[in-house]
Amino acid sequence: MRNVTAMVAMALLAPLMVPSAALAQSTPSDVRDLVGVRASSGEAELVRRGYVNAGGQPGDDRVWTYWWNQGRGVCLSVVTMNGRYDSIIMTPSPDCRDRPVTLPGPTGGPVHDGRPTTLPGPTGGPVYDGRPTTLPGPTGRPVASGRTETVRFARGATSARRQGAITGYETVTYLVDLRAGQILDVDMRTSNRSSYFNITAPGATSALFVGSTNGDNDYRGRTTASGPYRIEVYLMRNAARRGERARYTLTVAAPR
């Protein structure tokens, strides 16, 4: 009798449960057009539409990233496969709010909407030259920021190639001066799967492209501001902690 009662109760509740599940698995209309686009372009577009990267996790053949829209109270789960957005679905807001944000700022200090950051720097203070960084580093002490190099194209050329190596928490920053409206194309080949690059626009406080959460070392997008764009090459914290080394070839192109 108890089993019959339980089955009847479940049957009555089932219609009430379906809309909620369907809502959680739906793709919001404002991002539906991003399914299938290159991840680098999709990430820049999500930022433009008011979403903030709230972290992610890699899988065997895909990368999950979470995006939070504070104004709408919407959390998105984005699956990237083969460098493209495979799916974008709504997910419960705690999936975004309970995750550390991957935006720049002092470790232990607020970023944007007051959530803590997992990024490098001394607790409660900024990193290296006082600018926020988008790079991973040991909590409680600054990143070994390494060298900074300005990339200049040869006369008549629209691209340049740089080779280098980083070890542990060391980073290398490349600056390339661009005009608003130009296409920026950055590609990196590396010997270490945990090596990525971030791109930050002039005057911005957050990276417009985060390679490690995007799971991709290939970016192409149109610039929105004039000035020096910062390309930072780094190792993920797990690899940096082990003192791993990465040799890389970075190609930067900006067709006129």
The termini sit apart by 77 Å
**Percentage of β-strand residues:** 35-45%
Number of helices: 5
Based on secondary structure, the structural category is: alpha+beta
Report Rg: 21 Å
Would you mind describing this structure in some detail?
The chain is α+β, with helices and mostly antiparallel strands. The protein is built from five helices and 15 strands. The strands form four sheets. It has a five-stranded mixed β-sheet. Strands 1-2-3-4 form a four-stranded antiparallel β-sheet. The chain has a four-stranded antiparallel β-sheet with strand order 8-15-10-13. The longest helix has 23 residues, at 2-24. The N and C termini lie far apart (77 Å). Residues 13-24, 99-133 and 137-144 have low confidence and may be disordered.
Provide a quick synopsis of the model.
By secondary structure, this protein is α+β, with helices and mostly antiparallel strands. Helix content is 18%, strand content 36%.
List keywords for this structure.
256 residues; alpha+beta; 5-stranded mixed beta sheet; 4-stranded antiparallel beta sheet; 5 helices; 36% strand
Could you outline the blueprint of secondary structure elements for this entry?
Elements: H1 2-24, H2 39-48, E1 52-58, E2 63-69, E3 74-81, E4 84-91, H3 94-97, E5 110-111, E6 115-116, E7 148-150, E8 159-167, E9 172-178, E10 183-190, E11 195-200, E12 209-210, H4 211-214, E13 218-222, E14 227-235, H5 237-241, E15 245-253
Parallel strand pairs: 7-9
Antiparallel strand pairs: 1-2, 2-3, 3-4, 5-6, 8-15, 9-14, 10-13, 10-15, 11-12, 11-14
